[in-house]
């Protein structure tokens, strides 16, 4: 089962996606370089996060009790994902 990504890591990933986009398309090659993931893994991470946000899935942050925030599933145990 994929691990849950901490809220702070998910927000950081979204920021990097915005940073390397023209607000229409995301340059997943650059996102991957910035996050130590291959392009395909960065795309998959974004798809999972987007799906959870659109489906209304949420988890409670350990740092902010009671705050519901989207989680990000990831198939790796941290570090660089295999492609």
> Roughly what is the average pLDDT, rounded to an integer?
76
Q: Unreliable runs, pLDDT <50, ≥5 residues?
A: 59-79
Task: Please report the total strand number as a whole number.
Answer: 4
Q: If you compute it from the alpha carbons, what radius of gyration comes out, rounded to the nearest whole angstrom?
A: 13 Å
> What's the SSE pattern?
EHHHEEE
Tally of contiguous helical segments = 3
What class would the helix/strand composition place it in? alpha+beta
Tell me what the structure shows.
The longest helix has 17 residues. The chain has a two-stranded antiparallel sheet with strand order 1-4. A two-stranded antiparallel ribbon has the order 2-3. It is built from three helices and four strands, in the order βαααβββ. The chain is 46% helix and 12% strand. About 25% of the residues have low confidence. A hairpin with a 7-residue loop joins strand 2 and strand 3. It has 83 residues and is α+β, with helices and mostly antiparallel strands.
